[in-house]
Amino acid sequence: MLDHDSYLGMIWALWGIGFITTLGRATIRFRVQGTYFAEDYLAFACFIFLTALTSVVTVVEPLFRVVREYLLAAQTNPLTPPPITPEQMVGNNVKALKLMFSQMLLFWTTLWAGKFSLLVFFRRIVIGLPRYMMMFWVVFALVLATYLGCILSNFLTCTPLAKYWSPEGCSDPRNVKRSDSSIRFATGADIAADFLIMLLPLRLLLKVQISNKQKIGLACMFSLGLIVIAFAFVRLYQVTKATKDAQINPTALTDGPLLLSMWSQIEAAVALLVANIPAFRSLITPPGGTRIRPSKGSSYLHKSSSGARSGGFGSGAGSGSQKRISKARVRRPSFEMQSLHSGTSSFGSNVELRDGEERYGRTTPGIVRTTEINVDSYSRGEEKHVSHPFVPPA
């Protein structure tokens, strides 16, 4: 167990990492997009809940630390006087148990705010795909159900509820067993929610026609939840181990709340970090996007930042006519990769359009028909451009 200064230093260092990444997210998003989306506000809420959780952990730690040090001293010397009066010790115990109850509510809310931030971020990927949108709402409902289950389990751990913060606490064998089951259930719900969130984009990734290198890069970003899952397992192990040790060594009983608080803080901070990582993707690669090789005979499609289709080029050398493409031939070879960069990112430019016209032999003036159409990628010659700032060019 860490000493007092190291314990609080680590707790606030984790908060500091969350603050820096959240501030970086807010700055980058505003500079790149000029606005914030729902996933950004959920990440900001996650940081607010993390701040409240850190404050509660800071207040709880000294209350349990005093009892722990006294029990350790009394084990060595039974005549050791208590550091405070019995009445004060009972009052501190009740206060600590109330704070622990609120701490768990803040912990689950912090975790799920980060989960919903990632889930809403992935939603923009499947916009326009009815089947995957339906899957999104199913996953959303299941993730919400896991959150409500964790909150409910916190209220059902000790019955009646007032006994939770009574002087003796939930110390009888039945409630101790129920508390252990509650931790296991909540951890299982935490892990299940992370897997559900990851499976939504990963399933879609299997059907995307891009290179293996790009698929690996996207899979890494979509699998960030595995980091949170790893810390959830460590947290469960540490807490259940402390509970078992308390049955053999009563002085280890106070280690349980301290370890629970510490690992809850660690997992919550990691959840916020994971939620913020996708916002930094624009720093990894330039907004020009990545390139993949399509099939022969692809057409040049241009999508401006406003979503309008503009310009055109001839189908043959020296021809002033424009090659017409029916809607049936405009396929969706990928999901909305441009949304992974920003809500206002644009594909190509007017300069690229003119270059395309010259390349395909449009040298004579003529009437150009403008059509508005939504596409998610464009191709020029033998190259298809898909805007995605996370994966390096293939």
UniProtKB/TrEMBL annotation:
Residues 336-349 have a biased composition (Polar residues). The chain crosses the membrane at residues 6-28, 40-60, 99-122, 134-156, 183-206, 218-238. Residues 291-365 are annotated as: Disordered. Keywords: Membrane, Transmembrane, Transmembrane helix. Residues 295-308 have a biased composition (Low complexity). This is Rhodopsin domain-containing protein. Residues 309-319 have a biased composition (Gly residues). It is a multi-pass membrane protein. Belongs to the SAT4 family. PANTHER family: PTH11-LIKE INTEGRAL MEMBRANE PROTEIN (AFU_ORTHOLOGUE AFUA_5G11245) (PTHR33048), SATRATOXIN BIOSYNTHESIS SC1 CLUSTER PROTEIN 4 (PTHR33048:SF162). It comes from Helicocarpus griseus UAMH5409. GO terms for cellular component: membrane. Its main location: membrane. Residues 352-361 have a biased composition (Basic and acidic residues). InterPro entries: Rhodopsin_dom_fungi (IPR049326), SAT4-like (IPR052337). It is found in: Membrane. Residues 25-284 form the Rhodopsin domain.
